[in-house]
Design a protein that fits this description.
The structure holds 2 protein chains of 2 kinds. By secondary structure, chain A is mainly beta. In chain A, 0% of the residues lie in helices and 50% in strands. In chain A, strands 2, 4, 5, 6, 9, 10 and 11 form a 7-stranded mixed beta sheet that branches. Chain A has a 4-stranded antiparallel beta sheet with strand order 1-3-8-7, with no helix packed on it. In chain A, strand 5 and strand 6 form a beta hairpin. Chain B is mainly β. Chain B is 0% helix and 54% strand. Chain B is globular and about 40 Å long. Classes of the chains: A mainly beta, B mainly beta. At the A-B interface, strand 5, strand 9 and strand 10 of A face strand 4, strand 5 and strand 9 of B.
């Protein structure tokens, strides 16, 4: 069954702790993306990667870090420098390039107290 | 001016109504247009994909693109309560490093 998995579905952390969100895809897609979604708001791009071992900052990269060591995996670390980390985080993948649609994972709801 | 604009709603309609959802955009380089449906606390799912101008129909859903007006629409016929969700338009093309732009989404409620 091809798709994108994100784990865990819900994550709770104390303020000041770093936390890593997992994203795995078995669609053989080259490009992967991380978005943040706040209640009643659209998607905001955090980081994206068009190819293994390469990634670029999106619109709101401050306080976040990523790695892309394998084609299938694109983990996102929310660091203690992120001022408002509580949000719904979505991972997506695509074949890459302008004409290809993105497919999304189920999301991770992160709550930091 | 934002790259993509979309009425956030909420839009409430009775069951069986025809729903019209719209997006406007500013960049004429966009060539690929998509609609996503997102249920509460779920990831968006691709609903419709169109290239350039024209119409595309899939069951109760019709996507329409008017590149000359920089305007895209999604029509839902015979709307059902299960259509209640947020609908996001998306588009790509041109010199964008990440090749993709999403609208903010319109929240739709179909009342039984």
């Amino acid at each position: 069954d091809g798709g994108i998995t994100q784990s865990p579905k819900y994550l709770f952390r104390k303020e000041g702790q770093n936390v890593t969100l997992s994203c795995e895809q078995n669609l053989n897609h080259d490009a992967m993306y991380w978005y943040r979604q706040d209640p009643g708001q659209g998607l905001r791009l955090i980081y994206y990667s068009q190819i293994v071992n390469d990634f670029q900052k999106g619109d709101i990269a401050e306080g976040y870090s990523v790695s892309r060591e394998k084609k299938e995996s694109f983990p996102l670390t929310v660091t203690s420098a992120q001022k408002n980390p509580t949000a719904f985080y979505l991972c997506a993948s695509s074949m890459g390039g302008a004409g290809y649609e993105q497919y999304f994972g189920p999301g991770t709801r992160l709550t930091v107290t | 001016q934002k790259e993509v604009e979309q009425d956030p709603g909420p839009l409430s309609v009775p069951e069986g109504a025809i729903v019209s959802l719209n997006c406007t955009y500013s960049n004429s380089a966009f060539q690929y247009f998509m609609w996503y449906r997102q249920y509460s606390r779920k990831g968006p799912e691709l609903l419709m994909y169109t290239y350039s101008s024209g119409n595309k129909e899939d069951g109760r859903f019709t996507a329409q693109v008017d590149k000359s007006s920089k305007y895209i629409s999604l029509f839902i016929r015979d709307s059902q309560p299960s259509d209640s969700a947020t609908y996001l338009c998306a588009m790509s093309g041109g010199n964008y490093g990440q090749n993709f732009v999403f609208g903010p989404g319109t929240r739709l409620s179909v009342l039984p």
